[in-house]
Every structure is written in structure tokens, then in C-alpha cells.
Amino acid sequence: MASRTDLGGAECPIARSLDDVGEWWSMLILRDAFDGYTRFDEFQRNLGIAPNMLTRRLRKLVDGGLLERRRYQARPPRHEYVLTTRGREFLPVLITLAGFGDRHVPADSRSIQLINRTSGEPVDAVLVDRRTGLPLDELDVGFAAGPGASAGMREHYALSSKD
Fold first, then answer.
1. Are 25 and 49 in contact (CB under 8 A)?
2. What is the distance between the terminal CA atoms of the chain, rounded to a whole angstrom?
3. Once rounded to an integer, what is the mean pLDDT over residues 24-34?
4. CATH at 19
């Protein structure tokens, strides 16, 4: 079995993030955590994941600071897994992935939708310009080297921005 490359020290924030959540079981566990699942047996039942795999993925999400492990029963010891602030900040990624799936990997009909929890009405996730508040599409946005970028990263984005 090939060993997995450690991306935790990569300069690119996408690569570093994939080191924490780039495995599909992890994303599905986080999706279920957003839906209110917290217990091992709930995740296992809903996902159909093997117990040993679920144990490893939960440990990785806890170690990565996305979930917090809390004891809810002393005897026998039982724990729940609750989203941390860092974990809750992953929601836009899941929303974007769900939208991508609806558009490019469609089922017969839309199985889930993004809603306003207060009104129950469907909502759309959109990118907006910070200054104008106007919506942006994929042709309006791109990546650029940030203030802390290395010379290599700056060169990468200088080359990628040439037409």
C-alpha cells in the first residue's frame, strides 16, 4: 500500500487543508456533524463505515482540531464528537461541494438543499465582492500570491496569470 504524502507543511492553504480533511470519509463525518450527529454509533449507522475506519477518521478530525471528543457517559465510557469553531468554519466547503455535486454529478432529483434554518426557505451560497457587495461568479475570482507567499509561490501565480 502506498504511503500518503504529508501536506501539513505545504505553503498552499488548499494542500494544508487537505491534510486534515482530504479523505472522503472525513468530509462525510463533518457533514453529519453539521446535521447534529455526535455519537460514534450514529456516524457508523448513517455512513455504513467500518468501526475501525470510523475510529481512525474521528481521531484525525479531533487531532486536527475540527471535532472535540467529550465524554457523555462514565460507565462504560462513551464519547460524543462535537464540531469546534474550526470545524464549523468548514461548512462553506461542504456547501460548495454539495452545489458542485448538484450541478455536475446530478441524481434524478435534488436530494438535499441549503436552507435558512429559521424560515426553512432555500438559500443560495454565493461569493460577493467585499467592497461592493455584488455577487461574483467563477470567471470573476481567482487565486493570487498573498503577502506571506514565498518567491516560488509568487512565481507560480505570476506565470498562471499570464494569458
1. yes
2. 41
3. 95
4. 1.10.10.10
Q: Which domain holds residue 16?
A: 11-89
Q: Confidence class of residue 3 from pLDDT cuts 50, 70 and 90?
A: low
* Residue 31 and residue 61 in contact, taking contact as beta carbons nearer than 8 Å: no
Contacts of 43-48 with CB under 8 Å at 24 or more apart are 43/81
Q: Which residue has the cell 498562471?
A: 160
pLDDT digits (tens, 9 = 90+) for 75-87: 999 999 999 999 9
pLDDT of residue 10: 74
Q: pTM for the full model?
A: 0.80
Domain assignment present for 19 = yes
Asked if residues 42 and 31 have their Cβ atoms less than 8 Å apart, the reply is no
Residue 2 lies in a domain: no
Residue 77: Cβ within 10 Å count: 8
- Residue 152 pLDDT greater than 60, yes or no: yes
Tracing cell 472522503 back to the chain, one arrives at: 24
pLDDT of residue 102: 79
| Measured distance CA(53)–CA(73) in Å, rounded | 23
Q: For residues 70 and 39, give the distance between their C-alpha atoms in angstroms, rounded to a whole number.
A: 10
Q: Mean pLDDT across the stretch 147-157? A: 86
Report the distance separating Cα 63 and Cα 26, nearest Å. Answer: 12
Structural domains of the chain, count: 1
